[in-house]
Amino acid sequence: MSDQWNATGVSESIGFMGNLVTLVEESTFSISERNGDVVAGAAQGLFFRDSRVISCYEMRVNEDRLEGLGISSGAPFSATFVSRPLPRPGDTASTLLITRSRYLGDGMREDVEIQNFNHEATYCSLDIFLNADFANLFAVKEGRGGDPDGEVTYDTGSDQVVFSFRRGGFSRGVRVKFYPLPTQIANELYRFEVIVPPAGRWNLCLEIHPVMEGKDIPPRYLCGSPIEIAAPSERLAAWRRNVPQIETGSESFSRTIGRSVEDLGALRLFDPDFPDRAVVAAGAPWFMTVFGRDSLITAWMSLVFDPDLALGVVQTLARFQGREVNARTEEEPGRILHEMRFGEAPSLSLGGGSIYYGTVDATPLFVMLVGELFRWGVAKEAIEEIMPNVDRAIDWIERFGDKDQDGYVEYQRQTDRGLRNQGWKDSWDGIRYADGRVADPPIALCEVQAYVYGAYKARARIAKAFGDDDLWDLYRGKASALKERFNRDFWLEDRGWLAIGLDEGKQPIDSLTSNMGHCLWTGILDEDRAGEVAKKLTSPEMASGWGIRTLASSMGGYNPLSYHCGSVWPHDTAIGAAGLMRYGFTEQSVSIIKSLMDAANHMGGRLPELYSGLSRSDLETPIPYPTSCSPQAWASASPLLCLRSLLGMEPLVPSGEVWMHPVLMEGMGYLKVSGIPLAGAKITVETDGKDTEVSGLPPGIKYRQGFRLLGQDPLA
């Protein structure tokens, strides 16, 4: 039986790519053909809480398939499919036009309209084929079907059809309602025989209701109700109203930021127990759930647009923080989860689910993000409420994360069912030596130590502001000691770069990788070595022209088409660029940002999860990885971190300051960002790259223009 945490199957293309269309709304998503059909036997369907509730939904008019003519989509959760009956050989053009307007949200509503352009009334039959297999999300992704140990039953009533699934005490179902009712029902076929008036229309509405443990869940869009008042529409409209607005001379940059904001709005999840608290899912379609690392990094990157999203992420992760030792799920007291999946435990919030904790970096990232929220001016009461979780996270770092007590956090899975590698490069071969050998855990990754350093600094900063000088001294001392030994043990003097990690024997894993960009981001690297790292990150072996490669082209095991051994990940590149900017390498940072924005421009403004590391000099367009998610959370948020890097924005609200040193990419001309949220205010920044004007600052906050070097934070 496949382990859901290690699913390795190949999915089909998603989004508006190829012949497939993906729609997403929280934990509901659909994958269909461009004519709207869900084809039986394919990796398609309507999914709800990680289960495929509709595995076949095909439509015929007069027994003919539909030819897709076009798609209109104004929101991530809705689309209108326009088609006509596929002409038969010798037939003249059809006089019938079919539109299918689909709306997702806790199930689905679809409005079907047949329009007749003939001057005579036209008879037609509309056939709908429906089925449900209740396959697990990962079974679909890997090309498998429903659960062979379960039983699917089928029942028709006077106004609906119900599919039910049961395996032991576990049950799921789906209820399909038709308005009007079919004229004929036979097995999986629902036929409507209609006469469409001359130049007239005929309409049908379907509702698809998931059923969880016998409880019917009404779709958010109900037949007969106005579309604009449903929760997904209202939430998206509010998101669009409240996010900052950008103006610049670069049309492509504006488009990329706009696409990012739309996608992040679509990837938000809302906890039923806290409906005003948003978190962010990892990516569509296969990872519409809470991930620790992905959600934390995405939230950090998005601070310049919405600190409330980051607050919702840390509050939600705090709720599910580890409490006991469980080898099967790798739960440990204080540990932040890796992934939450909706399954056979409906008592849990966010709709019920199971949790896997096997990640080494989410816990220090959790502490870092709380510290960054504090610097951003989030209400002191919110920070105070979450501090017990912060201290439990630090306790995990020092007790469970550092099992051999050597001062470094390592990972090694507790059973053969867990993830072998538990950093962000979590593929089985993602950590290699320079000669190409795959490293075996336990491994202490360089970026994880950098995150721990950032966590210590964050905890010290909060302690100082809260008047606890003893904790301030304690965590400053911990950060300083970690930085000293890190620069001693991870720096490869003969190579001029940082080891990606230390192996079981505490020997350096010596490959040249992008991970060291994360070390610049947190500030753990000694400044006298930063110049060498900057040169390596921007060298031809690391910089493809579309971003920073995960593994240098000069290393053994390099493969530009692999998952983690030579590909380009937008979030990784954006973090590296932010790190370069932090150490004052402005020109290099802007160069990397421009390469990433050029890649986005080639992809219509939407960056996928990853793409190939093939050199720009060899290929004039970036090539997406075949199974990458799109939209994907931290890829969508990467342009927002790049925007913050260009602004040079470093809020220090507890110190009464906000620093900026704006720079522009070539071709931008000017940049204006209106409505940046800061300490309860909405500020506007306008710059031409030389002169900068900042307005709307909250009371007591002063604008400092200039480059904030590492040592200039009084609470660092």
Structural descriptors:
single chain; 14 helices; 2 domains; disordered N terminus; 716 residues; Beta-galactosidase, Chain A, domain 5; alpha+beta; 13-stranded antiparallel β-sheet; disordered C terminus; 4-stranded antiparallel β-sheet; Glycosyltransferase
Fold and architecture overview:
27% of the residues lie in helices and 27% in strands. It is α+β, with helices and mostly antiparallel strands. The chain folds into 2 domains: 4-232, Beta-galactosidase, Chain A, domain 5 (Distorted Sandwich); 243-660, Glycosyltransferase (Alpha/alpha barrel), CATH 1.50.10.10. Helix 6 (362-376) runs parallel beside helix 8. The longest helix is centred in the last third of the chain and has 21 residues, at 469-489. It is globular and about 80 Å long. Mean pLDDT is 90; it is low at 1-17, 344-352 and 709-716.
Write the layout of secondary structure elements.
Layout: E1 20-25, E2 28-33, E3 45-48, E4 51-54, E5 56-61, E6 64-75, E7 78-85, E8 96-104, E9 108-116, E10 122-131, H1 137-141, E11 151-156, E12 160-167, E13 170-179, E14 184-186, E15 189-196, E16 201-212, E17 215-216, H2 231-242, E18 245-248, H3 251-266, E19 268-271, E20 274-283, E21 287-290, H4 292-301, H5 307-319, E22 339-341, E23 354-356, H6 362-376, H7 380-399, E24 444-445, H8 446-465, H9 469-489, E25 491-492, E26 497-498, E27 501-502, E28 508-509, H10 515-522, H11 527-537, H12 570-582, H13 586-602, H14 633-647, E29 650-652, E30 657-660, E31 671-678, E32 681-687, E33 692-695, E34 702-705
Parallel strand pairs: 30-34
Antiparallel strand pairs: 1-2, 2-3, 3-4, 5-6, 5-10, 6-7, 7-8, 8-9, 9-16, 10-15, 11-12, 12-13, 13-16, 14-15, 16-17, 18-31, 19-20, 20-21, 22-23, 24-27, 25-26, 27-28, 29-30, 31-32, 32-33
